[in-house]
User: What shape does this take?
Amino acid sequence: MTYRDAVHEALRDALQADPRVFLMGEDVGRYGGSYAVSKGLLEEFGPERIRDTPLSESAFVGAGIGAALGGLRPIVEVMTVNFSLLALDQIVNNAATLSHMSGGQLSVPLVIRLATGAGRQLAAQHSHSLEGWYAHIPGLRICAPATIEDARFMLAAALACPDPVLLFEHLYLYNMEGGVPPGLERVDLEHAAIRRAGKDVTLITYGWSLYKCLTAAEALAAQGIEAEVLDLRTLRPLDDAAIMASVRRTRRAVIVDEGWRSGSLSAELTTRIVEQAFYDLEAPVARVCTAEVPVPYAKHLEDAALPGPAAIEAAVRSVLARDGGG
Amino acid sequence: MELEFRLPSLGADMESATLTEWLKKPGERVRHGEPLVTVETTKGLIDIESYEDAEVLEQLVQPGSKVAVGTALARLEVQGASQAPPAAPAPEATPPPAPMGPLAPASRPPASAVESPGTPPPRARISPAARRRAQELGVSLEELERFAAGGFVHIEDVEKLAAQRPVAHTDARGAMRATIGAAMARAKREIPHYYLAHAVDFAPAREWLARHNATLPVQDRLIEAVLITKAVALAAARIEGFNGYFLHGRFESSAAVHVGAAIAVRGGGLVAPALLDADRKDLPTLMRDFSALVTRVRAGHLRSGEFTAATITVTSLGAEGVDVLFPIINPPQVAIVGAGAVREQPWVRDGELIARPVLTLALAADHRVTDGRAGARLLRAIADLLAQPQAL
Assistant: This one.
C-alpha cells in the first residue's frame, strides 16, 4: 500500500461511514485529484459528495466552513499549502474563531487536507512548507501524517474532532510504500511518536523530514551515536510531555523542519525546550531547516536548500562535540 | 564571503590553546593550506593552516591569549564559494550566552561582535545540565571554572570532579561509576598497556604470617594484602619506571612510594586511595594505615589527598577472586599490580610435584615508560621479596 492508497482508503471509509461527509476541492472529481488521491471516488459516490470547485480557495474553503456550521462534515482539499494563503481569511478569521466567538454555541468540524513541501522541482510557488504558520493559530488543530498508518487513520480522527483540523500531506510521501500494523484501526491526534529509540540525541521532526532523520540516525548508529527520532504528528497543540521526556533522556536536541528557521515552528520548539528542559541540556539546541530562500526550481539548488541527512548528521555531531556545539 | 577562522580541535582532549604568533597580517592574503597562525597546546607549538584562499580582514585574538577550541581567531574574506561545506558548520551567529541586565541598552553591540578583539579569554562554558548536577553534588561554580580552564563542562566532568572530593554525597554512587568509567576509558584510550603475569610460591609468606599472627590479638594481625603491598612498594622503589606519573607527554618518577589500595565500596564501586610511603613503613604500621583506610572508605570519609596521591596501585579480588586479575592502569599512574586469589596448586620443586599455595601476580604497565623486560624484573623482585617475608 502506498501513502496515496492509504489516504484514498481513508476517504472512502469516511464517505461510507457517514452520509454527512463530502469531499470538495480543485480537480478532486473528474481528474481524480492533483495527486491522484481521489481517483474513482466520483464514480463511486457521485457528484453530490465529490465536488469539483472553481479555482477560488477563499470561496470553497468558506463554503466548507458554512457546511460544517450547518451540520455536515466537509473534507476540503486545497491543492497545496501555498494556495491556501488565498483562503487565510476564511481559515484564520472564521474557522478558527467561531467556536470561541460564539461562546461554544457553534463548532466548525471542518477538515482541510493540504499538500505541502518541496523536493519535486515544483518551484517556489508550489514548494513551501507553511504549516508552521497555521500552527501559530489558536482554534486550529494541525496534523502532519508522516507514516502510512497516520495517512490511513488520521482523517477519521480529524472528522471526529469538533474543531477545524488541517492535515498536511507532504507531497514526497504519496508514492511511499508501506503497511499498517495488523490490528491497528485508529490513531489519535494528541501524541507525538518515537519512531526510533536512542540515547544520545533527540531528532525532533515531522512529515518527510522524518525519513531523512531516520536515514541520518542509521548512519550515526554506524558511528556509535544513537539518535532518538521523534515524529511530532500533531504540530498544534504540541505534545510537550513527549518532547521533554525525550530531551531529558538524551540531553541534546536537533530539530529538523523543512520550514524556514526564522519565526518558525522550529523556533517555537527550541523555546519550549529551553523553557521547560533548560537544566537538562548538555548543548545548545540545534536546527536543520530549509535555507532562507524561496525554494529553488533547479534540482541541485533545491537539494542544497532542503534539510538532508548529511546536514542532520553534522548538526548531531556538533551538539555532541566536546566544545558543546556553541 | 566573510568567514570566521576558528580555533580547531587538534586532538580529542584539546580544549584550549595559547595564541603565540600571527603569520599573516590584516590585508595579507593566505592560500588554502598555508599556515595562518601559531598556537601552543599541550602537544607543543602548532601552525594552523587556512582552509580557504582568503584575505585576512581582522585578527580577533592577540598573541599571548589563551582561548577555547571554537573561538573565532580572525575574520577572513573568502574568494568565491568554498569547495565543500565545512564538516560541522557552526550554527550561524549564535553568540555565547552573555549576562544581560534587566534593560538591554539600545547601543548593545550586534551579536557578531560578542567575540571581539581584546576581550578576555571566554569564561568556562558549563552546560545547563552540568550546572544542575553541580548543585546536586555540592560542587561550586568556582570549582568548575577552575577545572574547566576556559573549556566546556559537561555532566561527566562535574561527576568526575565531585568524585575526586571527600565522598559524602547522597548520590555518590552514580558519580563514582562515572568516575571509574571516565578514568578507565581514558586509560584504555591513552595508555598502551602491556601485561605480564608471574606465579609465586606463597607458602613462605603464609607460614611466616601464621607464625607472626599466632601470638597477636586479632586487631594487630597482619593480612596477606599488606604483605603484597609492601613487597610491591619496595620493588617499585628499586626498579625505575613504575612509580610515578605520566604527565604532559613524559614520565615523572616519584621519590616517595604511595601505593594505591583498590578497595571495594559497599553497594558497588571502587576507590584506590593511597597508603602513603608504603616502602618505608613497617608492616604493623602499614596494617594500621590499611585498616584505617578501609574504615574511612566504608564510612565515606576519605581525604581528598588520598585520592590523588597514589603513585602505583595494587588491586586484589581477595579470597573470592580468581587465579589471575589483569588490571587497568589508573591514570596518570603508569603501573598497577593485580593479585589473584591464593590457591593450592601443583608446583614443581627440585623435580618433584608438590601442592603449594600459589599467588599469581599480574602487572599492567605503560609501554610509553617501560618495556616488558623491566616489567619482568619488577614482578621477579616482588616474588623475591615475598619469598623472604621476614625481611619486609
In short: DSSP finds nine helices and 21 strands in chain B. Residues 81-117 of chain B have pLDDT under 50 and may be disordered. The longest helix of chain B spans residues 172-190. The CA atoms of residues 205 and 386 of chain B lie 6 Å apart.
